[in-house]
Amino acid sequence: MDRRKFIQAGSLLVAVGMIEPVKGAILPAYMFEERIEGPLIISTWIHGLEANRAGWKVLQQGGSALDATVAGAMQTESDITNRSVGIGGRPDRTGHVTLDACCMDGDGRSGSVGFLEGIAHPAAVAKAVMEKTPHAMLVGAGAKQFALDHGFETIKTPIPEVKKDYLAWKKENKDLFKRPKINHENHDTIGLIARDANGSFGGTCTTSGWAYKMPGRLGDSPIIGAGLFVDNEVGAATATGLGEAIIRVAGSAIVVELMRNGMKPSEACREVVMRIIRKNKDLTGLQCGFIAIDNKGNVGGFSVYNGFNFAMKTNTRDEMVDTEYDRKW
Ligand code: GLY
User: Fold this and answer.
1) Is 189 designated active site?
2) Alpha helix (H) ranges present in 45-174?
């Protein structure tokens, strides 16, 4: 039975009362689920296709999952057409583009940077924080000084097109706290997770955050356990969407813990999405999506609203996968 027919069959069983539709509980896995052998890399949204290809080169040469995901993240950070990551990212409401990123390997090592301005590759700086400092996170002026001291490339932001949009926004905008609509046309963040030829996991997450955010705001992407969590004993998970909601449920860490306790990736992602739905009365514009891989090679994801997808690259595949979701926009 193909996946769609399986979903329809599941819905039919609910309709005839053979499966209890328990709100917020774990449903049988009639969501996307696939078991992959060998190395693989998955990333949030359509920009993940190019990012995965950059990461795949690292995996093909026997590189680590961590290095593959950092390479993938750097590819997206260099894309001047991307409005939610790196050089092409949108600024905060004072016109400053501040970037956030983190990375983690399967042995529990991690690094992170937040509120970093004028540096091309926050993902690579996060890895340097992990490798060259005793700290897990550097932010603001300290993060920038660390990046400059270590010779990381500088950039001038916002780029002219983004500045033009910002000035127009500033003129017209009335509702400073309106949530951005996050979907495949207007995606946010890239989160990448991978498994290498040794069976080790790694992940990286990078973003310019909520467009026109308050200065100083950090989302989930630089926060280990929120935007990303990796553990070789279990697998890896990463998140995209409204960072405030993801932080408040420790999203990616909980996905990994649910997998540790036996859930498949899609089930674990769905359970965390349902927690977000239960905890937030106002779901207007509250899109969040999670993707995960477990140590058996099962891959999955789930989102609050339709429109979320992820890119997957393996020995035989290079494609987008739509996740299941709880509700329609
Ligand atoms: N998920 C990215 C952010 O909220 O900043």
Assistant:
1) yes
2) 48-60, 65-77, 122-132, 140-149, 160-172
Which range of residues forms the domain containing residue 156? Answer: 34-327
Task: Answer whether residue 261 is part of any domain.
Answer: yes
Mutation to probe ligand 1, out of 99, 204, 207 (largest number of atoms < 8 A from CB): 207
- Alpha-carbon distances, residue 14 vs 101, 107, 160, 238, 277 (angstroms): 41, 41, 53, 30, 21
**Residue 318 resides in a domain:** yes
Which residue is catalytic, options 189, 207, 238, 240? 189
Q: pLDDT exceeding 90 applies to what percent of the chain?
A: 80
Q: Which residues contact 328 (CB under 8 A, 6 or more apart)?
A: 305, 306
- Pocket test residue of 188, 276, 290 for ligand 1, highest count of atoms within 8 A of CB: 188
Query: Residue 197 is encoded by which pair of tokens?
Result: 């030829």
Residue 227: closest CA among 54, 85, 92: 85
What does pTM read for this prediction?
A: 0.89
- Is the model's pLDDT at 259 over the cut of 60? yes
Instruction: Give the number of residues written for the chain.
Output: 329
Separation of 211 CA from ligand 1 center, angstroms?
9
Query: pLDDT by residue (tens digit) across 120-163?
Result: 999 999 999 999 999 999 999 999 999 999 999 999 999 999 99
In a domain, 18, yes or no: no
- Phi, psi (degrees; rounded to nearest 5) at 243: -60, -35
d(C-alpha 144, C-alpha 125), whole Å: 9
Ligand 1 touching residue 189 (CB < 6 A): yes
Q: Interior CA angle at 182 toward 299 and 267, to 5°?
A: 25
Counting atoms of ligand 1 from 1, which one is nearest the CA of 219? 5
Q: Say how many Å lie between the CA of residue 18 and the centre of ligand 1.
A: 39
Which CATH number fits the domain that encloses residue 190? 3.60.20.30
